[in-house]
Amino acid sequence: MRFSSGFYNMEAKMIRSSYNTVFIYLYVSIVFNPSHGFDVNQPQNKIINPDKTVSISCEHTADPNSVLDVRLNKVRANRSLLCQKGMDNCKNIIMYNETSDQDKWIFILFNLGPDAMTFEYECEVTAKENDIDNTKRGTPTKLLALQTQGQPAEPTPLPPSLQSHHLTWILIGLLTLMFVYSCVITSFYMRLMNTSKDCENATYVEMRNVPVQRNPDHIYNTAQKSKMPLI
Questions:
Q1: Is the pTM of this model over 0.90?
Q2: Which of 4, 24, 97, 104 is deepest in the core (most CB within 10 A)?
Q3: What per-residue confidence (pLDDT) applies to 2?
Q4: What is the Cα–Cα distance from 217 to 82, expressed in whole angstroms?
Q5: CATH number of the domain that residue 88 is part of
């Protein structure tokens, strides 16, 4: 009996030790495993700009290579999709990736009306973890009224493609202006040179008074009188 009791006590201790080992392993895996879960961060409030635009940033801590989808939802009573990664027909919304690591996405909303402040805007990110699709959402962003007097307006960032396009047109305009300016200067210089050549080639001609032609009859009578013999 004593042998059986000691055997059961030893078996119970081994079982408890096994449970403790499993619990410690799970705890360490959860705490130190970097692929466990991720967060989605977005601003709490955003002020609508005077041009009726606003930008909402969505940041996540998931592995960029594991991200399957990024989207912006409009939330009030229900949740409705506004724009998502790879979507071409986002109405009045531009979506672009701000960083090379693809961990921060920017949504620029245009033509916002007064009803835009009655909704909240939610970032949603879906990533694959351990062959499982995991979807996380951020705390929805609230839109506030136009800035009051004395409060600076928040500039809306332009996508890199629009920025480069804008700079390209500015460069083209400057080159065109320089070309027109050089043409005007060249034309003026050529006219000035032609005028100088004309002045050098000019010949002075003395203008003389033309004698007044007399009456032919008077000339004939004078000649006849000169031939008459003297008495």
A1: no
A2: 97
A3: 47
A4: 113
A5: 2.60.40.10
Query: What span, in angstroms and rounded, lies between the C-alpha atoms of 61 and 34?
Result: 10
Burial of 122 (0-12, 13-18, 19+ CB in 10 A): buried
Q: Residues near 156 by Cβ (< 8 Å), separated by ≥ 6? A: 49, 51, 53, 54, 55, 108
Nearest CA to 112 out of 145, 161, 158, 65 is that of 145
- Asked whether 101 and 64 are in contact (CB, 8 A), the reply is yes
CA distance 110 to 106: 13
Which residues, other chains included, contact 117 with Cβ-Cβ below 8 Å and sequence gap of 6+? 48, 142, 143, 144, 145
| Cα distance between the two ends of the chain | 205
What domain count does the chain have? Answer: 2
Percent of the chain at pLDDT > 70 equals: 60
Q: Domain range spanning residue 21?
A: 1-30
pLDDT (mean) for 177-182: 83
How is residue 226 written in tokens? 């000169």
